[in-house]
Amino acid sequence: MLGRVSGSARSLLTGERTSLNILQRLTGVATFTRRAVDAVAGTRAKIVDTRKTTPGLRALEKAAVRAGGGVNHRFGLFDGVLIKDNHLAALSGVRPAIEAARRAAHHLLQIECEVATLEQLDEALAAGAPVILLDNMTTPMMAEAVRRTQGRAVLEASGNMTLARLPEVAATGVDLISMGALTHSAPATDISLEWE
Length: 196
Fold this sequence. Notes:
Blueprint (H helix, E strand, L loop, with lengths): L8 H31 L6 E3 L9 H10 L13 E3 L1 H6 L3 H11 L6 E5 L2 H9 L4 E5 L3 H11 L4 E5 L7 H5 L5 E3 L2 H4 L12
Parallel strand pairs: 1-6, 2-3, 3-4, 4-5, 5-6
């Protein structure tokens, strides 16, 4: 039993389905997150969520990730600068994108640059990116990225992360593994309300 509620039959029946749906959803997110956290236990890697959340439920789903032992990434675009592939294309490369972000961001705003190749990783390191997102890289590429980085930047692995793949990705030595699946694909927990 998770808990007890009391009230008039009308109020309980009116709120039952919505309350249970939200509770099932958030419990599922927390449970799935715990499974991911357990999959990387004993490594340096932390499991991180993304902004891929249900409209209107972001704060609750991010709280559920924390309850499951995960870490929250940005809550919104205002929390940090994440330079994505389209930014790199629009600004003609890694270094120009990082330099543009530095000019636009205030001194407390963290800058993270997404890279898809080891050559882009080298450019991001040369430009002094403090956080680098390794996007859809193979496990051997991530291991090489960790070797090349030598602690000069925080490395976040992202893209095609599954529970089965997490241990091998964590073993590469990355600092963070972000999973949109924590909030967009977590199976709901089966919870029901029983009348007494």
